[in-house]
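Notes taken during the Thursday session

The instructor put the following on the board and asked us to keep it in front of us for the whole hour. The protein is SigB/SigF/SigG family RNA polymerase sigma factor. We were told not to look anything up and to reason only from what is written here. First, the residues (309 in total):
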Amino acid sequence: MPTAASRPSTTARVNGARLTEPAPDTGELTGLADLVRLAADLDIDLGDPAETVPDDARKLSRVLLARLRATEDGTAEYSYVRGTLIELNTALVKFAASRFAHRKEPMDDILQVGTIGLIKAIDRFDPSYNVEFSTFALPTISGEIKRFFRDTSWMVHVPRRLQELRLTLAKATDAIEQQLDREPTPAELAAHLDLTKTEVLEGLTAAQAQSAGFLDTTAPGSGPGEGGGLAADQVAREERAFETVLCLEALKPLIAALPQREHTILSLRFGAELTQAQIGRHLGISQMHVSRLLNRTLTDLRAALLTED
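Then, after some discussion, the predicted structure tokens were revealed:
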């Protein structure tokens, strides 16, 4: 049997990415040779760059995403499958980043942040969502990039004095919480830091602006003709409706009993984190119809949960 050093190497290209490594001799999907064999079963030739088209990458990703969910985290196979999915889908990051080419931030930074979004999408995706991975991943990637712009803009436009005050208040809040076993009041923070209450409130306001400034913008897909409204209003309504039931074990059989359409809407909204407009386009219905179905479903779940209790 050949040793790891003497095994033949296998080379392939996926979306332009060149992958080379020794061919493994295990039965698991832990190396490129295994990947090439899996691709061959799907009629995908990874050895020929001309044949490796985006459709093939999508087809292979679909199989690997299901494989990832069925593989134990922390194993060599999990790491290899996850890494391969990242390489297969870098085109999604480039596509999302290209929409922000006019920004002053370096494109390398945008691509790096977008890749973080891609990794989050891979880790969160569940094949049971019954949606293409690209449909799930692009909003996550774009959201990560927009968050980067928001944070960068905040650091540029907020005076350094307030930036430093925000950090000081955060540390003081943690220290006082440990002593009092509750969140401190502005007056207690002021006394602890020898500041005026006005200065404390100014720092707290800066912190809120940094962490939640995105709530002042119109929600994507919620413009004229799509049931407009502020992102803050939409998020707050849905979070309040779902926060009391999301993690309760009692909900599992109730959600499982939902009609397929309502089950899909819940999965896409709270699992895939798609907007109502994106869900509507996926299902072929209006954003307002999605909103009504979502609100009705959440109301029914709450009522059923109370009945169960």
